[in-house]
Amino acid sequence: MIxxxxxxxxxxxxxxxxAVRYLIDETSHNILLGGRNTPDDSMKKQxxxxxxxxxxxxxxxxxxxxxxxxxxxxxxxxxxxxxxGDRVAMAALKHxxxxxxxxxxxxxxxxxxxxxxEMKKKGLISVLAVGILPGLSELFPIHEANRSFDTIxxxxxxxxxxxxWTHNSxxxxxxxxxxxxxxxxxxxxxxxxxKEVNLFTSGKTVQLPPPLGKRKLFPVFREELRDFVESxxxxxxxxxxxxxxxxxxxxxIAVRLLHWHGTQRQLHQSxxxxxxxxxRDLQDKMPGFMLHLTMQGTKNGQPMSLASTLYxxxxxxxxxxxxxxxxxxxxxxxxxxxRHWASQIPNTEAFMNxxxxxKYTIIRKQDPDSTSPVKKAAI
Length: 379
Ligand SMILES: NC(=O)c1ccc[n+]([C@@H]2O[C@H](COP(=O)([O-])OP(=O)(O)OC[C@H]3O[C@@H](n4cnc5c(N)ncnc54)[C@H](OP(=O)(O)O)[C@@H]3O)[C@@H](O)[C@H]2O)c1
Hints:
alpha/beta; 2 domains; Rossmann fold
């Protein structure tokens, strides 16, 4: 393996420090932490002398450029990604280094599309939206589909989570809620046809495995998953999501209905509201994030149905690990040149195996028996 330098801007933040931990434990690459402030002693101890620090402010061109000069791969964990936009991705491109982004700002993908051919010629790789939501939220159903099905007729998929969101993460949640309709839409697929539905009136009460139980979720379909559904010709597909916790749910409904997302000032105020709401939701409770998928179709010519669940409590650790795995796969030559959503990594199995090695377990109820009423209805 060629030793590379992986730079992590925001390496002392909630997501960044978990990415750093993974890279220290699981790789032998050089690690360069970046941020505006010097890491505190606990962070230095965590990095165990395996990493160095270089001050960087991503909003200052010279500083960002000097940091890029030191890296082969750059992970950007500084946010909010809706404010950062494509600034760091473009700096990485200019410096001919690979780029990884756990943030969920869809427009970066589209601005890199204009450079995709150039990136392929230069052998440059960008992996975007590679956290848990987005990121794992797309990789998980694709991985489950690939391993268990030849054809898929029906898919219903739910995700829900809670944590003590930082201002940066909350800002991006507010931006995401405000931008439903652009990149993430309230749509469903019915009999092979895409239908727009109302975000609020098309909500559904879904029975999820413990500890979630019955939850009211709302239809949200990210564009990466639409690509997947269309490429696999899935006839009926519904994706539902929500925050787990009454206060954050209420806060996001208010942000959406009252349009508190039009300006940066409003988004900062909405982020403050979400941070407070998340603290209330988390009083005496653990964080948690669940992905729950049901699919019906065929495998080897036989009917197949699957219920698959991934649940964990350490949402920031899982997010940082996803970004770090993408950087590791780039360093190991396992991702082709070009710009990709996490969902477009060709080797989803390798990604998910590395993820599961970090003590994350997928619970599956797989049923190849054609007498099941579920499958009779599906086939
Ligand atoms: N996809 C997912 O599932 C997911 C989940 C959670 C978070 N995220 C995304 O991950 C990003 C980070 O979130 P977080 O919760 O980890 O935030 P955080 O804890 O506030 O960390 C942000 C880090 O970025 C650094 N930073 C901030 N502004 C900077 C600047 N101008 N230049 C250089 N460094 C800067 C900060 O350090 P200094 O203050 O010292 O500069 C800090 O270390 C956000 O964009 C968030 O949306 C994605």
